[in-house]
Each structure stands twice: as C-alpha cells, then as structure tokens.
C-alpha cells in the first residue's frame, strides 16, 4: 500500500498535459543552442553529459548543492552566520552547474520521463530562487527571513531530489541499459560472411543477447546491439566512418572498441571479438571489454565467453548447433539457451 501511495504524485505529474508545450519548446531551444555551436557545441554537450567520466555528470554535481544546503541548514540552526552564508553561496554555484548538466541530459528524454524531468527542473529552479532571496535577506542583515527562505528552499530541493530518484530508479534514466545482460557460453553460430554487406548493421541473437555485427572495409565488428543510453536499437542506426549512431537520441559508438564518441550515452557498449572460420563469422566477448567497453554483468570475473560460427555444411564441428537455433525471415539468428 505504501509503495502505491508513493507513486501517486508521479502519476499525477505524468497526467499534466499542459506541460507539453513547455517541454517541447525547451527541448527545441536546448537543441538549437548546442547545434548552433557546431563542433564546439558538441564537445560542450558531451562534457556535460559526462562522456569523459564514463557515467552521467549530473548526479555528481547535485551532491554540491544538496550537501552545501544541508550544511547551511545546520549552521543556521547553530546561528553560525558566516558559515551558513558561505554554504548557501557554494550551493548556488553547484546548483547552476548541476542545472546545466541536468538540462543537457533531460533534452534527450521523452514520454513520462520527460514530464517528470521538467517538474524536477522547475522545483530546482524554485529552490534556487528561494536561496537567492535568502542571500539578499542575509545581505540586509535580516537573518530570520534569510533562514526561513533557506528552510523553504531546502524542503523543495528534497522533493525535487525524490523525483530525481524516480527518474533514475523508476524510469531508468542515466543507467547503463546493457548491464546485467546474460553472458553467452559455448559456441554459437552468428552469420555467414557472405551474408554481411559492407556498412550494413545486422542484429543477431545469441544466448539471449542482442549483438550488432557490422562489416566495414573488410573487417567485421561486433558490439552489444542495445544502446547503453536508453536501450535504442543500434541495428536500425547509421553506420559511418567506423561508428554507429543510435536512431533514438543520436549517441555514437566506435565499432572497433564500443567506446562512446558522442553522447547522450556515457556508458560504452560491450565489445565482442570477431573472426571468420570456413566462411562463417565468429564473435566472442572481449577479455578486455572492461577497459574499452562495458563488461556484461560480471564478465570480467568469468571465463572467456564467446559466440562462434561453425561450418554446418561440412559437418566438421565437434559441438553441433542446438536444435533450438533458428533464422527468421529478416535474417536475424536466434539462439536458444
């Protein structure tokens, strides 16, 4: 019953259709701002997403205002005015940085997450405004007014933080969508080499894992097919110059090692080794994927797991393909457990 009650406020927010024009207009404005900056704008966007960090930057920055304003709350109660004032100022600086990173991440959301995210942002703006007013009152030596405004700002920031938790843990925003995938074990056929067209992405299923296989300039690459950002289908994306771009939010990944080239994704794609044996493609989980790409689950602690191809026509393999393996009309290879 308690769990259902905590979902009611979020569901109410999701039903507020009047927020639609605000969401759409703001996302377009943010997109235009970064787009007008060209390559520099893209670099700034990648920095604020946290591509360089390996996970979103926004949650790191939010610790600054929350921690500072918590300290200000305690210092105000202890009537240590100089310390409280410094803590409020530090929190405002951190809030500005967190807002830039958060707005950049929010621009790449949609559906219910977008609506909850915009309310999350509006609450943060309200909290920051109250803290700014608190600083004005403190400057006028109106300590009681300044403290009261800060208390109100702190309460609103806690509500906003709760919504932020719903975005991450409830709507999976900012998490790695390739984490926890089952690890294929044993040898499993993927595709024939002559079935792969240069520069054409292809999705294959292997032991429950979607794998993207791309042949480019004579080399065959394989990375996890589900985009780490929000689970987009990379097989439907654009392949160009050794990279693949997700069709949903335009994250770009290097086909050679799964690393992130452009956000909003921050988590790299797990990478698979590839080779050709008797005209069939083999791909196996890269031992070093914890360095270049993200290991699947606890892959770095498990024995080498691979997906291999064998030549069935020659009947030379010692470990036959499971009878449950099928190829559908689209060419996707599905492999049963």
Give the SSE layout.
Blueprint: H1 2-14, H2 20-36, H3 38-49, H4 58-77, H5 81-106, H6 111-139, H7 143-170, E1 191-192, E2 202-206, E3 209-216, E4 219-224, E5 238-240, E6 243-245, E7 252-254, E8 260-262, E9 271-277, E10 280-285, H8 289-292, E11 306-307, E12 326-327, E13 333-334
Antiparallel strand pairs: 1-10, 2-3, 3-4, 4-9, 5-6, 6-7, 7-8, 9-10, 10-11, 12-13
Question: Which terms would index this structure?
Answer:
elongated, seven-stranded antiparallel sheet, 337 residues, alpha+beta
Briefly note the structural class of the backbone.
alpha+beta
Q: Low-confidence parts, pLDDT < 50 over ≥5 residues?
A: 290-337
Largest sheet: 7 strands, antiparallel
Tally of contiguous helical segments:
8
N-to-C span: 38 Å
Rg over CA atoms, rounded to whole Å, is 25 Å
> Into which percent range does the helicity of residues fall?
40-55%
Fraction in beta strands: 15-25%
Instruction: Give the overall shape, derived from the CA principal axes.
Output: elongated
Question: Care to count the β-strands?
Answer: 13
* Sequence of secondary-structure elements: HHHHHHHEEEEEEEEEEHEEE
Q: Can you give the mean pLDDT?
A: 81
Question: How would you portray this structure in words?
Answer:
The protein is of the alpha+beta class and 337 residues long. The strands form 3 sheets. Strands 1, 2, 3, 4, 9, 10 and 11 form a 7-stranded antiparallel beta sheet that branches. The protein has a 4-stranded antiparallel beta sheet with strand order 5-6-7-8. It has a two-stranded antiparallel sheet with strand order 12-13. Helix 2 packs across helix 3, helix 4 runs antiparallel to helix 5 and helix 4 packs antiparallel against helix 7. The C terminus is likely disordered.
């Amino acid at each position: 019953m308690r769990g259902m009650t905590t979902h009611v406020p979020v569901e109410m927010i999701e039903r507020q259709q009047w927020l639609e024009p605000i969401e759409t207009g703001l996302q377009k404005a943010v997109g235009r701002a970064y787009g007008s900056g060209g390559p520099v704008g893209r670099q700034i966007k990648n920095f604020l997403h946290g591509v360089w960090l390996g996970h979103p930057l926004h949650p790191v920055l939010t610790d600054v205002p929350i921690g500072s304003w918590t300290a200000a709350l305690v210092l105000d109660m202890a009537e240590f005015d100089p310390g409280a004032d410094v803590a409020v100022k530090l929190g405002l600086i951190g809030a500005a940085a967190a807002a830039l990173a958060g707005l950049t991440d929010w621009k790449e959301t949609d559906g219910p997450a977008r609506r909850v995210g915009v309310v999350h942002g509006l609450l943060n703006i309200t909290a920051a405004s109250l803290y700014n007013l608190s600083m004005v009152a403190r400057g006028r030596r109106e300590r009681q007014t300044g403290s009261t405004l800060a208390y109100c700002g702190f309460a609103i920031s806690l509500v906003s933080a709760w919504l932020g938790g719903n975005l991450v843990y409830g709507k999976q925003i900012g998490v790695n969508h390739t984490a926890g995938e089952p690890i294929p074990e044993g040898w499993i056929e993927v595709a024939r080499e002559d079935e792969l067209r240069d520069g054409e992405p292809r999705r294959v299923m292997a032991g429950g894992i979607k794998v993207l296989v791309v042949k480019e300039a004579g080399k065959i690459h394989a990375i996890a097919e589900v985009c780490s950002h929000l689970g987009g289908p990379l097989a439907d994306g654009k392949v160009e110059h050794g990279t693949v771009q997700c069709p949903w939010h335009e994250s770009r990944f290097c086909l050679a090692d799964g690393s992130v080239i452009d956000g909003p994704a921050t988590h790299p794609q797990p990478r698979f080794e590839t080779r050709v044996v008797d005209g069939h493609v083999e791909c196996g989980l890269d031992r070093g994927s914890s360095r270049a790409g993200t290991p699947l689950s606890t892959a770095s602690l498990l024995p080498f797991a691979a997906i291999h191809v064998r030549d069935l026509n020659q009947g030379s393999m010692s470990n036959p393909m499971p009878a449950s393996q099928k190829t559908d009309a689209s060419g996707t290879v599905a492999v049963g457990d």
